[in-house]
Amino acid sequence: MNKQPGRRQPFRNRRSREGQNGARESSRNVTSPTVNLTLSAESVLALIQTADRPLDKKEIARILGVRGDDRITLKNILRRLEEKGDLSRPRGHKVQPPGTLPDLLFLEIIGFDKEGEALCRPLDSKKEVSAPIYLRGSSLDQGARFLGSLRRLADGTYHAKML
After folding, report:
1. Confidence grade of residue 49 (pLDDT, cut at 50, 70, 90)
2. 96-119 confidence digits (pLDDT tens)
3. Residue 43 burial by CB count (10 A; 0-12/13-18/19+): exposed, middle or buried?
């Protein structure tokens, strides 16, 4: 074969891109769209109630595998659940079950338990807490105030982390 300047030469080593049966393999990993059968108000509500922190629509869509036009359906489901009172929006676009504490909160240490973990309460008097808030490994004394990041555990208690 003669080389001509400015003309691209054909790819000669085709075997390296061929599979066992001579079929050409794709160099890109293309996945076919999956049909989401789990998108319902019950599945969305169950996901939000089991989450340890408030979730936004993008995270819910990623976890449930929602793509494309199903995101509009997800948005409508979240709006209906919020109107019924099954969800609350503590700040911004994140949703959580009603009656749960937000993920950032000013806290005050009110005492210590037998294991040495600090028991806390929110400084905001409007926030009523039915479950205890624990702060591990604190060198603070009783009455100290701090900004805490909260994680809700499966048993309903909260663990705080000082920020």
Report:
1. confident
2. 888 778 778 899 998 888 888 889
3. middle
